[in-house]
């Protein structure tokens, strides 16, 4: 018997060890606790109208701007205007030496007076010869007296034309302001010799301005003559806040219905509604054109409006996360337009009333449970969770 027990001891030991190992395999691991739903702020996709603003840089241009020159050449004997001077229309700005032109005019006037005296004498002689008749004077003499009077009459008309030409030439020796404005540049000084047509001054009118702006052709369908635009100094200077609020307004005057060959842009003329200190000729200006999108109409027929915070920008696409049956459902969207706070988007399965995540969406995984809350921290009930489609 002791021998039998000694023989069974190894077998019993193996069976006991196997039982212990078997109990370890069959024991279930401790259950994981489910993660609570992630609290996220939400908003509803809506219909309605979205007003976008397309901003382009324009340049202020004076409607009256000219480089002034004299029609004659000579030495400058008077030039008073300097840069920044305001001048009135018709004011004398520059005068060059006109002694030679004055002498030519005086000679033409003297010649005409002499011609008039000779003409009067010739007419009297022709009348006398005609009165005597061919019974006393030869016919050739009568004809010669009449021809002489006609010749002197033609000479009188020629001298009158020469006087007018001399007077016109004399005006070329003076330069008057063609319009009221400000002297922008001065290119000559007293005593300098000028050639005919050489620029002396540049005059710019600052009370009659317009803005020329080149825009993308996609804006053409939204452009309309008479439409209002927003004006701001380029670069957000001179008191424009971070919101970009307009500090000036303008009106579309005209649209050139042809693309520029080099830039492939449309040229638009804008007239400021009121004068501004920063609207100076040559200054760059931000011009904002309002573009309106109506959900359910035109190219935005299948689009909806969502808060801009609902957009999750990825390397490949843009998505919004929709709350569907208590979980986050990503939808790839196409962004049609954006404003500072909202975006017009279209995506398959995204419709008006869908509940989209606006805060906390960056860390959500597809299908993750969420607990929608409002911006003030209140829970959104299940009835408030709209369908994605």
From TrEMBL:
Residues 69-202 form the CzcB-like barrel-sandwich hybrid domain. Belongs to the membrane fusion protein (MFP) (TC 8.A.1) family. The keyword Ribosomal protein does not apply. Residues 1-22 form the signal peptide. Residues 105-176 form a coiled coil. The lineage of its organism: Bacteria, Pseudomonadati, Myxococcota, Polyangia, Nannocystales. InterPro entries: BSH_CzcB-like, RND_pump_MFP. This is Efflux pump periplasmic linker BepF. GO terms for molecular function: efflux transmembrane transporter activity. It comes from the Bacteria. Gene3D superfamilies: 2.40.30.170, 2.40.420.20, 2.40.50.100, Helix hairpin bin. One of its GO terms (cellular component) is efflux pump complex. Pfam families: BSH_CzcB.
């Amino acid at each position: 018997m002791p021998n039998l027990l000694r023989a069974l001891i190894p077998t019993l030991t193996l069976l006991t060890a196997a039982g212990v190992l078997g109990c370890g395999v069959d024991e279930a691991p401790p259950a994981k606790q489910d993660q609570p739903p992630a609290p996220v702020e939400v908003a509803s996709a809506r219909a309605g109208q979205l007003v976008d603003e397309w901003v382009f840089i324009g340049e202020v241009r004076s409607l009256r701007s000219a480089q002034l020159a004299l029609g004659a050449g000579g030495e400058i004997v008077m030039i008073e205007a300097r840069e920044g001077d305001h001048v009135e229309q018709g004011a004398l700005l520059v005068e060059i030496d006109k002694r030679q032109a004055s002498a030519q005019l005086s000679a033409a006037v003297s010649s005409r007076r002499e011609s008039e005296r000779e003409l009067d004498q010739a007419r009297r002689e022709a009348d006398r010869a005609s009165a005597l008749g061919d019974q006393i004077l030869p016919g050739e003499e009568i004809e010669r007296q009449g021809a002489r009077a006609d010749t002197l009459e033609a000479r009188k008309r020629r001298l009158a034309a020469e006087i007018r030409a001399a007077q016109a030439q004399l005006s070329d020796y003076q330069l008057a302001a063609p319009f009221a404005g400000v002297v922008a540049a001065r290119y000559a000084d007293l005593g300098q010799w000028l050639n005919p047509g050489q620029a002396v001054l540049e005059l710019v009118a600052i009370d009659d301005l317009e803005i020329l702006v080149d825009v993308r052709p996609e804006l053409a369908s939204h452009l309309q003559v008479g439409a209002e635009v927003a004006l701001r100094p380029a670069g957000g200077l001179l008191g424009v806040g971070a919101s970009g609020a307009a500090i000036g307004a303008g009106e579309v005057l005209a649209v050139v219905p042809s693309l520029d060959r080099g830039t492939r842009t449309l040229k638009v003329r804008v007239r400021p509604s009121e004068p501004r200190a920063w609207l100076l000729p040559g200054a760059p200006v931000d011009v904002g054109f309002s573009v309106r999108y109506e959900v359910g109409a035109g190219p935005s027929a299948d689009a909806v409006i969502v808060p801009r915070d609902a957009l999750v920008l990825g390397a490949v696409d843009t998505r919004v996360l929709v709350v569907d049956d208590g979980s986050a459902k990503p939808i790839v969207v196409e962004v049609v337009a954006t404003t500072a706070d909202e975006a017009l988007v279209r995506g398959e399965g995204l419709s008006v009333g869908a509940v989209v995540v606006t805060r906390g969406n960056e860390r959500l995984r597809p299908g993750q449970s969420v607990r929608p809350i409002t911006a003030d921290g209140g829970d959104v009930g299940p009835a408030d969770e709209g369908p994605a489609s």
